Amino acid sequence: MTAGVVVVLNAGSSSLKFSLYEGDAVLLSGQVDGIGVRPGVTARDGAGTKLTAPDLAAGPPGTPAEALLALLPWLREHLGGRPLLALGHRVVHGGPNHDRPCLVTAALLDDLAALSPLAPLHQPHNLSPIHAAMERTPGLPQVACFDTAFHRTIPEVAQVYALPFEMAARGIRRYGFHGLSYEYIASVLPEVAPGLATGRVVVAHLGNGASLCALQGGRSVATTMGFSALDGLPMGTRCGEIDPAVVLHLMREDGLDIAGVEALLYRRSGLLGLSGVSSDFRDLLASEDPRARFAIKVFVYRVARGIGSLAAALGGLDGIVFTAGIGENAASIRAAICEACSWLGVELDAVANAATGPVISRAGSRAAAYVIPTDENLMIARHTRALLADTAE
Ligand code: ADP
């Protein structure tokens, strides 16, 4: 294996998350928040000890790209004499053509920039630090890892919408997201859940963003997110699946414009919209407010219903895997979902569930249930290293 460090980057509109990997080990991780407003950096070493982060007050970065350029010298100081091998980036959209990570070139960036209209809230922010690093350190390899790539194995019947046929060729189709998380889970199944690795599995990525993925033998065959990361399950502030006629109605009746619709569906809906309390699951679980309880009920109902739908796509179910913030930590929610999936043969082991598994179903349960922590950054670090090794051959 090539010795050296890979920097994994995940850029949003106002934040830049970074982790330094040597092999599978995290040397350092942290984030810049409040970019464009009042940026601040927090960082910890691999053991979780807080580090003195660089002070960006002198020249506060206005974009994630500027934040990366401001951070790079500090990150280099923390390499401990090891070479910096590459930057590995999380990029939300790889479009219909990219079914795996790619080494960044100017042509690739043009290709990815053309996908920005498909993910206007994420893609431009993901790409701007790549551009900046390319200009500042042209010799440093960069790898783009896509949230959509893992879902390119989904059969065409499950990728199209029943719109005029030519729409799919224009890119209006189901892409699916959280692919790096699902790929990580698929990669560890042979070790953690050997009985499921070749079987029919629904992975429930339940975090601030939430989706389900149907795995058949470790490959994605169906998923709840679609053209955008708005579809499928209700999320922290996103509505998930709704009748598109609701949007038409609101535009007609309330005069909502594009920005108004976007704000409603992306930021004022989901658990926040239903509860009126919070988008954060911990707040909802701690709340006595009947609407917070109702929001949780809706969430559980929709997840269980989604699992049933994906079990239908799989032609049966051998197991469910829970992951991400809610899936990994909220035992009561896992219990409620498993209860609602008992008709699929899921029998929960309450003691194992309270102890966070990894197996949380009873011995002899027709469909197994597991809790497996996800690790999208590790997936990016591995892909980046593997691609470098491939290109060096
Ligand atoms: P993101 O999509 O931002 O990566 P995460 O996977 O970190 O999100 O998940 C965040 C969600 O997980 C939040 O709704 C948070 O409340 C929830 N969560 C985290 N820890 C717990 C916990 N112990 N119990 C219940 N929910 C939790």
TrEMBL record:
Free-text comment on the cofactor: Mg(2+). Can also accept Mn(2+).
Gene3D superfamilies linked: 3.30.420.40
GO MF annotation terms: kinase activity
Binding site for ATP: 17, 205-209, 280-282, 325-329
Binding site residues for Mg(2+): 10, 376
Residue sites binding substrate per the record: 90
Major localisation: cytoplasm
Localization annotation: Cytoplasm
Pfam families to which the protein is assigned, alphabetical: Acetate_kinase
Keyword list, A-Z: ATP-binding, Cytoplasm, Kinase, Magnesium, Metal-binding, Nucleotide-binding, Transferase
Chain positions of site Transition state stabilizer: 178, 238
Signal peptide range: none
Superkingdom of origin: Bacteria
Pathway: Metabolic intermediate biosynthesis; acetyl-CoA biosynthesis; acetyl-CoA from acetate: step 1/2
EC number, UniProt record: 2.7.2.1
Reactions catalysed according to its record: acetate + ATP = acetyl phosphate + ADP
Cofactor: Mg(2+); Mn(2+)
Active site: 147
Protein family according to the UniProt entry: Belongs to the acetokinase family.
Complex and partners: Homodimer.
Record HAMAP family: Acetate_kinase (MF_00020)
Function recorded in the entry: Catalyzes the formation of acetyl phosphate from acetate and ATP. Can also catalyze the reverse reaction.
Name under which the protein is recorded: Acetate kinase
